[in-house]
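Ticket #265: bound-state structure for D-MYO-inositol-1-phosphate.
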Amino acid sequence: MNEEISLRHKASVGFARQARELIISRLEDPEFTLSVSEKTSRTDVVTQIDKEVEELLAHNISVKFPDDAIIGEEFGVSGGNGLFEWVIDPIDGTTNFIYGFPAYAISIAVRRTTDLKVLSGVVLDVPRDRLYEATQSGGSFANGKKLAVTNQDNINDSLIGTGFSYSSAVRIRQGEIIASIITKIRDIRRAGAASLDLCMVAAGELDAYYEQGLKPWDYMAGSLIVTEAGGMVDGGFTAHPTEDMIVASNSKVHSGLLELIQPFH
Ligand code: IPD
Ligand code: CA
Ligand code: CA
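RESOLUTION: The complex was predicted; output attached.
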């Protein structure tokens, strides 16, 4: 692995672990009260911890890699005009975090600015303290154990993950897709954190996953973890994921899933 990437990947792991410590220390503080505010809608909320974590990550990145740019969910784009760009979701699964539902993660991707290739991906499952990581051509791992997608080749026997947008208009369309495909697959799962849904495909805990309306910080690190585990990620009807659609799978049921969602494209 290129020295520059290896440096950034190792740093990502350290930064994610430090961010997890911050979250755990806040949750363990008996004086702490969580403040929640609305963003784009009643259902789209943010806590002060999301912001604190992003500040911590951005600070660490800018001190160690001052030429790199940072794109974060809460504070947008900052700094850097160098070769690398960090794409971060400080807490993916904020609704779960607020409820203590055990599925939320810190997601950090590093990509090259010249061709936008994602070179490193780290997703740290905070409640389970499970670190998913991948580097380009280096494989995917969870707490050091190599990951591999399932061998399922029949979409009708597949367990499929998905998620729902914060926009009501998009949710209505998403409900229609579910109603149409639920009788043609094994079952649906909605865990509430896109980065972890992708890691579940990589780990063979889901055969495939699709969602409409994600942002790059939701899927960038998890997508590399899927492809490095032998899976496939695209935008369904485009070569790369877009905010319109992401489809990730073990590759064998990919076309079968696309056929099911095609009528809604
Ligand atoms: C959300 C989660 C959720 C997905 C939403 C995302 P957030 O991210 O990944 O699973 O369905 O589309 O926005 O807001 O918790 O960072
Ligand atoms: Ca997110
Ligand atoms: Ca988030």
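RESOLUTION NOTES: The pocket of D-MYO-inositol-1-phosphate (ligand 1) is lined by residues 89, 92-94, 163-165, 192-194, 211, 213-214, 218 (CB under 6 Å).
TICKET STATUS: resolved
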